Here is the input.
Amino acid sequence: MLLIRRKAFAWATQIIPKHHNGTHTITFKSGHILYQLNNSYDVGGSRRSFFVTSSSLRGIHSKEKTHVAETEKTLAAGTEKNLAAGTEANVTAETEENRAGGTAENSQSFSSGKLLETELLKCDNIQASLESKATEDDVSKIREEFDAVRQSFQNIPAALRMMPKMDPCGIYANDNLRLDHIEVYGFDYDYTVSHYTGSLQTLIYDLAKEHIVKENRYPESCLQFQYDPNFPIRGLFYDKKRGCLLKLDFFHCIEPDGCYYGRRKMSTEEVEEIYGNRHISRDYATNLTGLMDLFCFSEACLISDIIQHFVDQKLDFDAFYVYEDVKRAIHHVHCSGLVHKKILAEPGKYLVKNAAVLKFLRTLRERGKKLFLLTNSPFYFVDGGMRFMFEELGVKGDSWQDLFDVVIALADKPNFYMSDRPFRYYDKEKDILTFSKVDAFEPHKIYYHGCLKSFLEITKWKGNEVMYFGDHLFSDLRGPAKAGWRTAAIIRELEREIMIQNEDKYRFQQAKFHIAQELLGKFHSLLTKNPRGDADNVLLDALNEERKKSRWAMKEMFNPYFGAAFLTDSGRESAFAYNIQRYADVYTSKLENFLNYSSEAWLHTPYDVKIMPHHVKIPSSVLKTKTEWNN
Here is the structure.
């Protein structure tokens, strides 16, 4: 098309009559571009022709593209008289006479301007026709590619089995970490050193609903609620203002099908009506509270059940009050010791014995490392749990305390990292806190409360030689990360999620999703200027349907309501993954996974990592290559 225009410009240089000792300029507009053709003649009659676009006229040396608004501005400045008359192309002849005596400028309009405008209009029509034909050809190629690839959807390609698989028990680094530089290991207790069965969530749920009915006078019909272990996942956000339970992606956008009001999934139209769009702004994010540890499962489920019950019964309620009441009930269950006593009464029902954890702790001691326990749980609960888990492994009575240089209970994290609260010595024989000042940590003694500042002053441990293990990203790891400690997140569901991602059926759906996504991107980029026809709409619907089917298939492999904790349904990282990357130097599924690594190991972030190092992106090419298909 550029060649056609240049031929028209060459023709224009021939239709301008020579005027010796003068200069002639044709200025005209074609499409969105302002053109100027200059023919100058010296006193010998030699002609010099040059052509410039509106960009060049403004002093910008781009070749043939400019914005419509800038073009009209140039035309208004240079050809104001002709624009007022509605003329889009004008020809101006400028003749210089009497160079020695001065300068006189004359403008003359040539009928050739109209001829040039006609020729350029023909060029534009030819260009539009060619572009339309090219678009049709490109759309046909997309249709052919999609039809060909769809044939491969019938079988799982052998190429998938050649893709790397991730280790469900691996340690994954967000930041490079040298274990030979770590001299001090700190541990949370719940869901880090200890692990619980699924019965614990049901216990917390039942105790909280009983409290909320008895103390807050909620309807007695709430006592009929039952905990649903298939509903919540870790990393959800509760909107205290509007009462919605949300799953957000890495960029804090509400995931499609990731918004529930009570137990009802909100449609895309309802989400847009409530929030305007799917993006949660930083200002509005203050209304959200993150549910970041496993104890939050019962909380999320109870909030949703109460809201759904109130909606069904047509009861008037404020979503913020429901959240506050449930939060206080869960807090009461923990702080009153009610749940602790229930667990210790039946430890075999709730606690999981694990010899590998004990082996890991002993291995660290043998290598001369310092160990400390920092937990929000009371000492009697920790002591009872440790005895149950380790007694059959040769750890008698309270000798588990020999594993740690310092034991701190009721630490009140995350306030521990920010407050100036002093340490108190706990006399376990008398079950009282003494009044003496704590200026040193002694073996076999238990300490309560305290703060990070005093802890570092007493121990003299430097921040970068300390690594702290915990399961709660905010309470356990955010404070240590800001204090300069290295941090390790224990994420129990990571093992299961990696196992699912390693399966061929999941990778197959991921590759199908990426194909549909790629073809949709090509499709939309082609039809930005030309209207879609019926055949185009059929192709668009087919691509969207294929993408939707793959997205749903991947989601249901993890959780039928919210999908995976680390991933959105489309394979992007979730907001939970964002917080892990932000606050955890490394993360793994279990504490004992460190037994698989040397104490001198260097843990590196993969060179090709996108966001989370344990994710493998399955390219669409595995379904495009000609390979042997296995049934």
Summary: Residues 153-167+494-574+584-589+614-630 form one domain. The chain has a mean pLDDT of 80.
